[in-house]
Every structure is written in C-alpha cells, then in structure tokens.
Automatic annotation (TrEMBL):
Gene3D superfamilies: Sodium/glucose cotransporter. InterPro entries: Na/Glc_symporter_sf (IPR038377), Na/solute_symporter (IPR001734), Na/solute_symporter_CS (IPR018212), Sodium:Solute_Symporter (IPR050277). This is Sodium:solute symporter. It catalyses: L-proline(in) + Na(+)(in) = L-proline(out) + Na(+)(out). Pfam families: SSF. It is found in: Cell membrane. Belongs to the sodium:solute symporter (SSF) (TC 2.A.21) family. The keyword RNA-binding does not apply. Keywords: Cell membrane, Ion transport, Membrane, Sodium, Sodium transport, Symport, Transmembrane, Transmembrane helix, Transport. The chain crosses the membrane at residues 6-24, 36-59, 79-97, 128-149, 169-188, 195-213, 248-268, 280-299, 319-337, 374-393, 399-419, 426-446, 452-473. It is a multi-pass membrane protein.
Amino acid sequence: MDSFTLFNWALLLMTFGLMLYLGYLSSRRMHKDDAAGFLVAGRSLGAFVGAGTIVATGFSGWGFMGSPGVTYQFGAIEVLGNFFFAPAMVIAVLYFARFMQRKAIEMGSNTIPEYIGQSHGGGAMGRVLQAVSAIITVVLLLVFLTSQIKAVGLLGASWLGIELDQSAMLMVGVIILYTMLGGLAAVAWTDTIMVWGMALAAVIIVIQMLTTIDVNEWESGLNAIDPELLNPTNGAHYGASRGNVFLVLPYAFLFAAVLPFMAIRFLAFKPEVKLHKVGIYVAVLGGLLSLIPLVGLYVRVKLPGLADPDSAMPVYLEQFMHPAIQGVITLFIIFAMKSTANSLLHTVASSVSHDLRLAIFAERQPSARRVLGLNRAAVLVLGVLALLMMLYAPPFMLSWLGILGTGTLLASLIGPVFISTFWQGSAWGALAAMLGGFFTSGYMMLFADVGWLIGPLTGCVVSSALYIGVTLVGRSHRAHARHPNASFPDHPA
C-alpha cells in the first residue's frame, strides 16, 4: 500500500467518524420515543440544511458517475439535460413545498405513502393506498439503490485498492449505521456537509479541465471523433427528436416534487422556514454541480477508446489529477453517491416499518420505543438486501437503472401526490393512477425503444388521466345512485 493509498484510507476513516458522530448527535436530539423524529427529523430542517439535503440527494451518484458516462457515450446533449435539474428543483421548492408541508402537518403525515392515504380519505381504502404506494416505493427505490451502491462501490474500490464487493460492504455499512442512529436528521446533516464538498469538487474539476485543454482543441477533437457529440441530429438516449432533451425540465421538477426520497424533505422543514432562502441555496449549489458532466466530453477527447463509459469519471481522476487532489475529490464524489444512498435507504425502510405496518396492523398500537426499534431494524435489513442485489445483479448502465427506478416511481405517484395539490381525486382514482403509471412506465423502459424519458413521462400522462378519469366516473355513478331519475343541467350552479 503506497503513501497515497494510506492517505485515502485516512481521509475515508476520518469522514466516516464524522458521519457516525453526526448520527450519534442526531439520535441524542431525537427523543427515544419519537418515531416522527426518525421519519421527518421532527420537522426541524432550516433553509441551509434543507437545501443541502435536497441538492445532495438530487445531484449524487448519477451526477458524478452516471452523467459523465452518459456524456462520454452520447455527447453534449447530456450536459444540457443535466442543467435543467437546478431550476427544476428551485421551482419545486418555491411553488410546491409550502402546500405539501402545511397539508402534511395538518394530517400528521410522516411519509409520502401515509400522505397519499390520508389525503384521499383515510379509513380502510386509505390504508390500501398507503400499502400499495409503500410496496411500489420499496420495489422501485431498491432498484435505484442498487445502482447507487454499485456506483459508490466501483469508485471506492479503485480509490482504496480493494475489490468491488469489499468497497460496497464498507460504504453501505457506514450508511446503515448513521441512518439507524439518527434517521432523517442524520441523513440531512451528513448530506449538508457532503454537498459543499461536492460543490468544491466541481470547481476544482472545471478549473483543471479549462487549464489543460484549449476550447478550440476540445471542439475540434470531439468533431473529429463524431460530429454527433456536439451537434446531434437526434435526441440520443432521450428519444428520436433533439427537442426531447427539454423534457428533462418537467421530469426534473416532478422528480423533486413527487419522489418520496425527495419530497419527504418538504415534510421535514420547519413550519416557519423561508423558502426563498432555500431556493437561493439550491440554485447556487445546483448550478455548480451541473458542470460535472463536462468530464465526459473531456475524457472522450483525451481517451476516446474507453470500453465502459461509466468509467469516465474514475479514469479522469486517475489519469488527469495529482494523486492527493484525486483522493480528496474522490472522497467528495463518494459523499455524493452516499447522500442519495442514505436517502433511499431511509425511505424504503420507512415504507416497510411505518407504512406497511400501519396499513396491515392498524389495530395494533405498539409503544413508540418499539416503533423506533422497528424503524432501525428495517434500515439494517433493507440495507443488507440492497447490497446483495448489487452483488448479484447483471451488468447495467448506472443512469439507465436509476431512471428505471425513479421514472417509474414518478409515473406511479404523480396523480395522488402532485395532481392532488390542485385537483383532489378519489381513493379509487389514486389506486388506478398508481397501478397504471407503474405498468406503463415499467413496460416502456424495459421493452420499448423510445428513449429514457418518454417511458416515464408517458406513464405520468397515463397516471394523471386515470387519476382524473376514474374519479369523475366514480362521482358520476354516485350522483346517479343518489338521484336515479333526476335530470341534471349541463352547467349546474
């Protein structure tokens, strides 16, 4: 083991200690009998921490590992698509978070599946909705978590000089420990520290690239390899049309506003938090992190023959950075991937230990201390399960697997989470929307060659139509049942 590898290990162990300490502090601040503290951080997140955890979770493994690989493969169109995430997150914070936050406080919702069930009437049907949305969340986010674990494992293995399975077990083990200790509060505080390291890494990377290659040389080199890299005639992985890339903006907005591991942050804000401050922090951090995919174009010019596009970032760090700087930046990138992995793990664990428990065993009222123990046990079990899924999964492209999980979940939940903010549907409409979105997006992502966004967005359209249509049909039938012989005017008062 050389001196730089020892330096990397020292950095890693030091930051592991910091994360575990933050988890310990969060557990001390969280009452031992307070399950809501574990699930929504006691609704204690301020503007700085709230923005930090939103951006860290949104711009993570796919941002530092997936998107450079996609850019290497498909060109600058991925750089443009990546830039839409920052404004989309700002819009979600400014125009969606407050409504959802207030409604969740009124109902006492501590998870997104619980929010869905309570906002659609509660009762037996509300528990069905809570259970179905929880099951869909667990299945699809475990898929996404698998990609995150692979990403952090690959980078950690090359950085520390160990095998993939050893690296993945090390990283996931620490995530499990501090998430078990402090719940969402620990996740949010560690995310906030991570995201500023991520932003610093982005600045260093951009400076290195711009000082080692002339922009004109960069352009001519890419055009010599393939003119499609800078001037595409189609949308590449986004679909047949170049304009499909602009669909990233609505997709990214819904990503931030609807997906449970993102939207749960809105429920965890302090009631008095100033959302415009959150938006400013999100804009600054998101703008910096949007520069990362340029690495893919840089490596494509310097090393055009990579067999695995997803290795673009590790190869860039290994060949174009001083080993000491490489170690620090790699640590920040590992931060990025862990920031989403911990959020996914917390969300799927909450869906099992909280949502499925309430939906199936509503009549049972265990002690709050026992509930907290169940929450923590779920983190451990599902963390180990996700690790095993990664170790035995067939080869896949990181970004594609991430969109399969998040895009299909987005299509499933858009109706009962987003459409319901301005048009309240029925419980049956919510159920139809979740199932319709799930099967539509899942089928198109797996079996239809239509691009990475068309499937999820088509699922969103189908889900929204079912949410509204089934609700209207149900209301019409109920009105007819109450007044079978009545004649209704076209425009009732």
